[in-house]
Amino acid sequence: MELMKVQTWGVVTAMVLSIGLLTGCKPRNEPVIDKAESVQQEKLNQIPLIQSKTVTVELAKPEVCVESGCTQFNLQTVNTNVDWINEYFDNRIKKTEPIAFSTEPNEKVNLSAKDASLNQSSMTVRYMNQWYNIATFVINSYTFNSGAAHGLSHAEYVNFDLTHKKRISLQDILIQGVEGKVINALYDANSNWLNDHSITREKLQLSDNFYYGADGIVFVYPLYELASYAEGMTELVLPYQVSQVLIKPEYLPSLPNYKMP
Questions:
Q1: Which residues are within 8 A (CB) of 158 and not within 5 positions of it... i.e. 6 or more apart?
Q2: pLDDT-derived band of residue 17, with 50, 70 and 90 as boundaries?
């Protein structure tokens, strides 16, 4: 009888240990990790949150003189927490205004020349906003030649894809083959202003100068192209509501679920 009790107890103990081994490898209530969600989170962690301040570009000379006159330069760029963005604007300024970085002695100005003058040239880079993987900066430039009626100003918007570390163009963000539809949608959304300025649908072209605004993608046109100098650069807004069928999803901000009619 005692022997049977010992054997029975041994069998029960073995069963309990077996169950413990089987269940011990799978902790209860452990959250299930979605692989796609994990990959998305990893991508999100790789996208920097832009921190930026505008700083003055140090030049060897406050003004550069050639025989016909002198030019005063005022150049400012951004110092961000993203090195490749800093390098982009440093190179861009040096390429646009190479004479400003000359270390050669100034030439003697011929004061008897009719075009001898003191000109002004400025370029300022400024951070605007960030929509997830898209960061937008603007380059404001101004030139004034002495003797001219007025100076000329321009704003160029630079949009970066932070995921692929590159500047994005209009062709990058448009779905293939929708250029005509974009023009029509842009015209419809701004028809009152365009009609007031006698601009027909056939005359309107897309500008490759654009930025992401609060209500839509803003297309920016140079001075004189669509309006007078006094009105400044023209901005036409393509609402986000209609952009969803025209712009690639990866280049649209996170938006409410608009129901298209």
A1: 88, 136, 137, 138, 139, 167
A2: very low
* pLDDT at 27 exceeding the cut of 80: no
Looking at residue 58, the DSSP 8-state letter turns out to be P
Q: List, as one string, the DSSP characters of 172-218.
A: HHBPTT-HHHHHHHHHHHTHHHHHHTT--TTT----S-EEE-SSEEE
Handedness of CA 170, 176, 180, 185 (dihedral sign): negative
Element housing 94 (H / E): helix 83-96
Rounded Cα distance between 79 and 85, Å, is: 9
CA dihedral (198, 201, 202, 203) positive or negative:
positive
Q: Which residues contact 128 (CB under 8 A, 6 or more apart)?
A: 136, 137, 138, 157, 211
Going by C-alpha positions, the residue among 108, 120, 106 that lies closest to residue 73 is 120
Distances (CA, A) of 258 to 66, 214, 240, 241, 245: 58, 15, 9, 6, 11
pLDDT in tens, 143-161: 998 777 778 999 999 999 9
Burial (CB < 10 A; 0-12, 13-18, 19+), residue 78, is buried
Region 24-33: mean pLDDT is 53
Cβ pair 216, 237 in contact under 8 A: yes
169 versus 70: the higher-pLDDT residue is 169
CA angle in degrees (0–180, nearest 5) for 35-40-44: 145
Q: Is the pLDDT of residue 193 over 90?
A: yes
What pLDDT, in 10s, does the model give residues 78-132? 999 999 999 999 999 999 999 999 888 888 776 555 555 689 999 999 999 999 9
Quick one: DSSP state of residue 237? E
